[in-house]
Amino acid sequence: MNRFSKTLLALTLGISVSACAGTQNGTAAADQPVKERAAVDVSDLAGVDAAAGTDIVSYLTDGALNDETVLMDAEGTALTADELSFELAYQAYDAFRYYAYYYGKEPAVTDDMGDGRTFGQYIASVAADAALTYAASEVIAKQEGLEMPAEYKAEVEGIYDNNVEYYGQNEWSRAVSEGTVAEADYTEEQKQAWIKEHGAKAFRDYLLYFGTTREGYETLVNKNYNYMTAQKLLFADGGKYALTDEIKAEEIAEYAEENGVVWARCILFSTMENDDAAAAEAEAKKAYEELSALTGTELSEKFTELQQKYDKSGYTAGEVQMYTNTDSLVSGYYEGITVLKPGEIGITDRTAYGYFILLREEDRPQDLEQTVTDNYASKKMKELSAKVLEDSGCTAESILEKIDIASYYTKLFALQDQIDQANGTAAEQN
Fold first, then answer.
1. What global pTM score does this model have?
2. By Cβ atoms counted within 10 A, which residue in 59, 231, 297, 371 is the most buried?
3. pLDDT, tens only, 119-143
């Protein structure tokens, strides 16, 4: 059973929310009451239990929670179970798609991850962590007095109609392509009515497929745009936490230390396949002795010369490479660089590829500027979010404690298959 269905013509915003305390029936702070969730008619979906349309969260959690259960209330921001349910379902979809694409297989939610968790529990923890970050962003927006930009407001206000139009257009194109609709038989008005009707149904199926409600989804979208608002207004040029040259220098130094960034060049004397291992060892030792007698510019120039003559690594002679402590490198390579000071050379023991002569280069912080700049806003948003969540006492564990994860995913996957079958859209591998 794979999880990739034609029902999912496209994934709209992959957003999330989270939780802390469990209050049934939507009681929340006065400035943000929980909007009543409307039941949906699923009678046209053969095989789908009517209970799924009445209260999707209650259906998936065997009554432990309901659509309007308030899981966290922080400074007037109420987070509900149908919001969390969407993230749980979306993260599962994303995880299964990842494993299928990269490993050609589909793990089971009960698979042991080797850290005391099942695969399902791992997915749920990712979902909860992401959810908490987005939840906190709305609190941050309130604390900082941020007003959502007009273009974001327009997206939020039009989210339902935009999705209905999108799904309706896809349904129309498919129907015309399959010959079940003759476009010539429809006036423009009739066509738009058809698109609206079928788009609403397709979007309903999408929401059910991802275990949420229209109201929960719209709330999620709003929180997602609050996240983007905070990033844009707080960290852009002129923002309260904008990236200055001084901060950038600090961030670069911190990034380099945390990731163990080093710069180096190498000469590989290969012992692989048909290469003569004894000759490679002799040449490596001779070259190392020759280089050891040099320093500075002479060393650098001679190193480039010997790279051109001997190196089998595939790197361009003279080109400096950057490495981090998370890179997948042959044993002894990264470690051989880190014991050197800039301008020093070393030689490895025989590795799986052969012998490496290593030249550690001077640090090049300018190489990290773009990475640090690109990551700055999201990093700082996570830091601000972590402070909000620390103050609220919310954790991923606390928002998941009432959900039997294995049971939830068993019921979710069964529901997704039922929706596919009812629509005649058999699951397919993407």
1. 0.75
2. 59
3. 999 999 999 888 888 888 889 998 9
